[in-house]
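tokens incoming
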């Protein structure tokens, strides 16, 4: 994947992370950064898994900013990456903010990619590109949380543009392409769009099977049947998609789904990152 980005008038930042197994735990063995992207020191709240918090010190993304993230999890390693807070895309005077993410998971490795929500202020222009490459025998569990406007303040995303594309590659073959495109108010009330919801979220589990899909659907039926949420399984990728009005409401449904799949797919007990409780 060509991760090169053109010149812009905003921040240019790049972060590379590499995880490898060591006796008893996974270590962050490679870290290269340019510009305002960084990670805190790794945490080990559970055996064998390296927890990392991804930081963007400026506190928000503006038109013309270009952020590039590349993560590699080597065979036998286990990593969980999250963020301490929402990523805010501010109103743009015309330039588009670009964020690209390349996540590589080798055979026998697992990556949990669980950033907090992306909030698009009215008038923001954002383009996100995620490519997730998993070798046969690798495992990925992650989500994308998109908030259009600032519903808590009564601000709708009535102008601006968001174009988010996620590609999933399993052993060199593309198995899923998911895209969210919103241009101002055009998708806000559409029956095939957001249906008046400010939040659009997707959770993905690569390496899942029919038994896991059945368990997720049972959880949804028992606890969240009244919510606009559903699950599908295509070529080994289990996708749970949801609409909502608040981050709290979306996470109240997706965190239990993540916990269920963490046990079924990764063989790990739920261990929410400490930063989620602050």
């Amino acid at each position: 994947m060509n991760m090169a980005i053109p010149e812009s008038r905003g921040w240019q930042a790049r972060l590379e992370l590499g995880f490898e197994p060591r006796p008893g735990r996974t270590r962050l063995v490679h870290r290269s950064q340019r510009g305002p992207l960084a990670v805190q020191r790794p945490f080990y709240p559970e055996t064998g898994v390296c927890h990392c918090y991804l930081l963007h010190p400026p506190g928000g993304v503006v038109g013309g900013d270009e952020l590039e993230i590349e993560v590699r999890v080597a065979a036998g390693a286990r990593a969980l990456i999250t963020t301490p807070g929402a990523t805010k895309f501010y109103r743009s005077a015309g330039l588009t903010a670009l964020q690209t993410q390349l996540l590589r998971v080798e055979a026998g490795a697992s990556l949990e990619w669980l950033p907090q929500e992306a909030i698009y202020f009215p008038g923001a222009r954002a383009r996100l590109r995620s490519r997730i490459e998993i070798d046969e025998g690798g495992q990925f569990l992650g989500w994308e949380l998109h908030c259009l406007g600032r519903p808590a303040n009564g601000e709708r995303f009535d102008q601006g543009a968001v174009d988010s594309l996620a590609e999933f590659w399993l052993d060199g073959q593309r198995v899923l392409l998911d895209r969210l495109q919103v241009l101002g108010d055009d998708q806000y009330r559409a029956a095939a769009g957001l249906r008046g919801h400010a939040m659009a979220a997707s959770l993905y589990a690569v390496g899942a099977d029919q038994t896991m899909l059945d368990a997720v659907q049972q959880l949804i039926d028992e606890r969240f049947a009244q919510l606009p949420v559903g699950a599908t399984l295509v070529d080994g990728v289990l996708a749970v998609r949801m609409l909502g009005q608040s981050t709290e409401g979306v996470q109240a449904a997706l965190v239990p789904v993540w916990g269920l799949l963490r046990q079924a797919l990764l063989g790990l007990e739920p261990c929410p990152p400490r930063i989620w409780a602050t």
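note: The longest strand covers residues 12-22.
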